[in-house]
Structures are given as structure tokens and as C-alpha cells.
Write a structure and sequence with these properties.
The protein is α/β, with parallel strands linked by helices. It contains 16 helices and 23 strands. Helix 10 (264-276) links the parallel strand 13 (254-258) and strand 14 (286-292). Helix 2 packs antiparallel against helix 4. The chain is globular, with a radius of gyration of 25 Å. It starts with a strand and ends in an 18-residue tail after the last strand. Bound molecules: nicotinamide-adenine-dinucleotide (NAD). The site of nicotinamide-adenine-dinucleotide (NAD) has 30 residues, from helix 8 and helix 9.
């Protein structure tokens, strides 16, 4: 059976590049090929950037209220398309439907924030900074912004970027992951139906070649990247060298500390959901739990019991708590890291290796795995696994837990489970990560704050969405104004500081 080809969207038209060797899209629950993606070639990149540039010239002059009206319509259409989008995400990415709906909901929050763009772009004004002199400052769009996004959130991450880029007056070109490329095309359709002029939201499909052409293109001004740290570094370096403004969000190894005074049942439920939800393929997944010695044995038992009860099935199975991983390669790597940890002395308290649900033997499944007595030297601790594997590290106290987090090269998120305000406050102030949860396992900020990690989890200066996105997608302009009175001084002033 011939497979559908997922197209590019260039200047309002869908275009499947002829002749390119297609990349295959598989349903991770079955392993079967369900679509093909034809990589955008150099002429596609040229056409998209030219259309974006032309569209930007007029869009940046469109009154703010009219821009907001497009965003309000897009918000409505996105909400209505939530179930459709979730089905696309679940089919290509593998996550369970309820989680895919949650991803759309988190993306919607960013659109909510972007709808307030007239307020967000209000400038500042200082009257009479000197006699007869006023100063006004405001922000203007950059031009063409590019977004390069990962496989794990094919709707939410493009929505972290595009609503704010567009609301602030830019054109946006999305390069989604070739592993789950269809949601991007559906988003383009929704923007079009919302009345966004063509060329302002375009999609170019493919892999590194397309990315490298886009991020160094002379007519591109800004690059937002979300993906793994090695690629984030590479993209940041190349795009900065080409003179672009860049934010590059990378991988993670998020820790939760569980103190002896925490509500153990609440903490265990939170840790299990955050470690195994979306098969651990969230940049804010908890992959390490550091437990105080005093309660460690009992806590690990509790976590293992709950992890055993996780139902692993295809994402569209209503009974599923957890779906497959994205690919056979990713699954095999995760299982190999578990084997290496066992060989290095970790105790496999729950072994998910080899789990293959009946009827879905071709799918990319592995079961929830709990590794106890992990040490920082093991691969299971040192590497981002990005799968349903929870590493347990035993700690003497909060200080040892904080030191562990701070020694880790990643700094996306960290959570603390405790009943003590003093410990929570100390933790908040001491840990070197960007997003903190206190009795909250996945502290993803709401759309009116900004999202971003520290250290190897974010290369660049700006977090995504929220107020920082206004700054990222715009540049400042300041006007100093004087309207000389008819009786102004007849002499030239040679004093740089003199304004009066
Ligand atoms: P990835 O780095 O392999 O790919 C991300 C994007 O970059 C894709 O569009 C891909 O096609 C492109 N790409 C891949 N290799 C490239 C190269 N050499 N040159 C140019 N472009 C390239 O990441 P992934 O596997 O799709 O996603 C998982 C990773 O993303 C994990 O590390 C996860 O932690 C991270 N992630 C981070 C955040 C965050 O907010 N920090 C959010 C989601 C995912």
C-alpha cells in the first residue's frame, strides 16, 4: 500500500518535494510505516524564506488589534481541533491520548498569552528628561524566525514558539521532527483558517540539511531550537556565527529529592507519574529520585508497586497509562543502559526490559524500570536515557541531594518532596536549575511565565514563551525627541551631556 507523503507548507500551499529520498514515519505502537516525509530541498528553503520575508514586511505593519484578532481565531480553532491533533500525536509519537490532549492544552496557554499582544508590546515613555525633551522606547519585530523542534511534543513545542513570534510581528518557519511531522501541517492549516496571511507560518520537513540551510540563511533573523544538548550546542554555535539571535534548549536529567518528612504516598504517586508518563520521553520527566536513607527501602518498595501497576499499551487504548518509545533504536538504547547499570552493580528493582504487549510485538515498547543503588559513575545516571527508567540514588540528607543536582551538567528541572518550609526554601535558593517544583513533580511553567533550564539544558540567553519570548522575538528602539521652541538658544552646544 502506498503511504501518504507529509508535505511542506510554503507560501500557503502544500508541496511535496519530488525526487527526494523519503524519510519513513512509523507508528511506534506497531512499528509499521504509516507515512513518508520528503525532505525540503534547497529551492524549498529559498522559496519559504522569500515568502516569509515578504509576508513579514506587511505583517509587521498590521495594527496590533488585528494581529490579536487572528490569534483569538487561532485559539478557538486550536481548541476545536484538540481531539484531532491528539490523535495525530498519539499515532506518530506513541503517547497516550489523554496525554496528547494535555500537550495541546499546554500549547493553548501560550496562545492565550499571545492574544494579549497589544498590552505586551506597550512601550515606555519618559516625559521631560531634559527641558523640552521626551524619550520613548518600544520593541519591533526581528523579521524571519525559525523553529526547530523535537519529536516528543510535536504540537506543544511548535506552540511554545510560533504564537509569540507571530504575535510580535515576525514570520515563522517550522522545521518539525521527521519522526512525527504531520501535526505541523495541521497547525499550518489552522493558522490559515484563522486568517493569518500566507508566508507567516510555514513548514519545511526534513533533517539536519534543511536545518543547516535555514539557520545560516542571510534572510533569517532568529532561531529557536528545542532538542538534545549536542545538537543544541551545534545549532547555537552555527547560528550565532551566522549572526542570528539564538535560543537552544537541550536535554535534561531531572532529579526529585524525597525527604523523610514528605507524604510518602503522595511523593511516590508523583514520582511514578513523572518518571513513566509519556514513556519518560519528556524533557521534564523525572529520571532520578534521590531518597533520604531513613526511608529509602520503604519508598523504593512503594514506587515499584505503583510502577508494576502501570498499564503499557498502544496510545489509543483507553486503558493505557504509558505507550511505546519513539523508535526501536531509542528502546534498544534504553534497555542497553539498564543492562550496563545492572552489570555495574545497580539493583534492578523492576525490570521492564523485553516487555512486548501481545499483538504489538513489532512496537517499540519497554516497560517501566526502576534501578536502585545507582551511582553517578553509571551510564544510567550520567546519560539522558529519555525512556521509562527511574534511577534511585540514596542520600544522607537534603544537602547531599542539592550537591548531587548541582554537580549534574544538566539543569532543566528539579523537585523536592517535603513537609518543611525551611527545607523547601533552602532548596529553591540553592539548586542550579531553571525550573523548581515543591511537591510538584513536573514544574512546567504556565504560559504567562517563561520556560527554560540552566547549564547544558539551555544554550543561549532567553527562555521560551511568556514574557521572555516578547524580548527574544523583538529588538528595542528608543527615540529621544525635542520640538524646539521659537525662542531656542541661538548658540551650538558642544557639551555631550547638555540637554537643557
Ligand atoms: P534531536 O536533537 O535529535 O532533534 C531535534 C531537532 O533537531 C529535530 O527537528 C531534528 O530533525 C533536528 N536535528 C537532529 N540532528 C540534527 C543535526 N545534527 N543538525 C541539525 N538538526 C538536527 O532531539 P529529539 O530526539 O527529537 O528530541 C529529544 C530531545 O529533546 C531530548 O534530549 C529532550 O530532553 C530534548 N527536549 C528538550 C526540551 C527542553 O525544553 N529543554 C523539550 C523537549 C525535548
Amino acid at each position: 500500500m502506498s503511504q501518504p507523503v507529509v508535505p511542506n507548507v510554503i507560501a500557503g500551499r502544500t508541496a511535496a518535494t519530488p525526487g527526494a529520498e523519503p524519510l519513513l514515519v512509523r507508528n511506534p505502537a506497531t512499528g509499521r510505516v504509516i507515512a513518508k516525509v520528503a525532505e525540503a530541498g534547497p529551492p524549498d528553503v529559498e522559496a519559504a524564506v522569500a515568502a516569509a520575508r515578504a509576508a513579514f514586511e506587511s505583517w509587521s505593519q498590521v495594527p496590533l488589534g488585528r494581529r490579536a484578532a487572528v490569534l483569538f481565531r487561532f485559539r478557538q480553532l486550536l481548541a476545536e481541533a484538540g481531539d484531532d491533533l491528539a490523535a495525530i500525536v498519539s499515532r506518530e509519537q506513541g503517547k497516550v491520548l489523554s496525554d496528547a490532549k494535555g500537550e495541546v492544552a499546554r500549547g493553548l496557554e501560550v496562545v492565550d498569552f499571545a492574544c494579549g499582544i497589544p498590552q505586551l508590546l506597550k512601550g515606555e515613555f519618559s516625559p521631560q528628561v531634559a527641558t523640552g525633551v521626551d524619550v520613548a522606547s518600544w520593541r519591533e519585530p526581528l523579521g524571519v524566525a525559525v523553529g526547530v523542534t523535537p519529536f516528543n511534543f510535536p504540537v506543544m513545542v511548535p506552540l511554545w514558539m510560533s504564537p509569540m513570534a507571530i504575535a510580535t510581528g515576525n514570520a515563522f518557519i517550522l522545521k518539525p521532527s521527521p519522526q512525527d511531522p504531520s501535526a505541523a501541517v495541521r497547525l499550518a492549516e489552522l493558522w490559515d483558517r484563522a486568517g493569518l496571511p500566507s508566508g507567516l507560518f510555514q513548514v519545511l520537513q526534513g533533517g539536519p540539511d534543511v536545518v543547516n540551510r535555514l539557520i545560516t540563511h542571510p534572510q533569517v533573523d532568529a532561531v529557536s531550537f528545542v532538542g538534545s544538548t549536542p545538537v543544541a550546542r551545534q545549532i547555537h554555535a552555527a547560528a550565532v556565527a551566522a549572526g542570528k539571535r539564538v535560543q537552544a534548549l537541550g536535554g535534561a536529567k531531572n532529579h526529585a529529592i524525597v525527604l523523610a518528612d514528605a507524604d510518602a504516598e503522595f511523593a511516590a504517586n508523583s514520582v511514578v507519574a513523572a518518571a513513566f508518563g509519556a514513556a519518560g520521553q519528556r524533557c521534564m520527566a523525572l529520571s532520578v529520585v534521590a531518597v533520604e536513607d531513613a526511608i529509602a527501602d520503604e519508598f523504593v518498595e512503594r514506587v515499584v508497586a505503583k510502577a508494576k501497576a502501570v498499564t503499557v499499551a498502544a496510545g489509543d487504548d483507553p486503558a493505557a497509562d504509558m505507550g511505546p518509545m519513539i523508535s526501536a533504536r531509542a528502546r534498544d538504547r534504553a534497555e542497553e543502559i539498564v543492562s550496563a547499570a545492572a552489570a555495574a552493580g545497580a539493583r534492578v528493582a523492576l525490570d521492564g526490559r523485553g516487555l512486548r504487549p501481545t499483538g504489538l510485538e513489532g512496537g517499540f515498547f519497554t516497560g517501566p524500570t526502576v534501578l536502585d543503588a545507582v551511582t553517578p559513575a553509571m551510564r544510567a545516571y550520567a546519560e539522558e536515557i529519555f525512556g521509562p527508567v527511574l534511577a534511585v540514588v540514596r542520600i544522607r540528607d537534603l544537602d547531599e541531594g542539592i550537591a548531587l543536582i548541582n554537580a549534574n551538567p544538566y539543569g532543566n528541572g528539579a523537585a523536592l518532596f517535603t513537609g518543611a518550609g525551611e527545607a523547601a526554601r533552602r532548596f529553591e535558593r540553592a539548586v542550579t536549575v531553571g525550573m523548581i517544583g515543591i511537591n510538584v513533580p513536573i514544574p512546567v511553567p504556565v504560559g504567562f511565565h517563561s520556560f527554560g533550564g540552566w547549564k547544558d539544558s539551555l544554550i543561549g540567553d532567553f527562555h521560551v514563551y511568556g514574557p521572555q519570548a516578547v524580548d527574544f522575538y523583538t529588538q528595542a528602539k528608543v527615540a529621544t525627541r525635542r520640538w524646539p521652541a521659537p525662542d531656542h538658544s541661538p548658540k551650538a552646544s558642544f557639551n555631550f551631556a547638555a540637554r537643557h
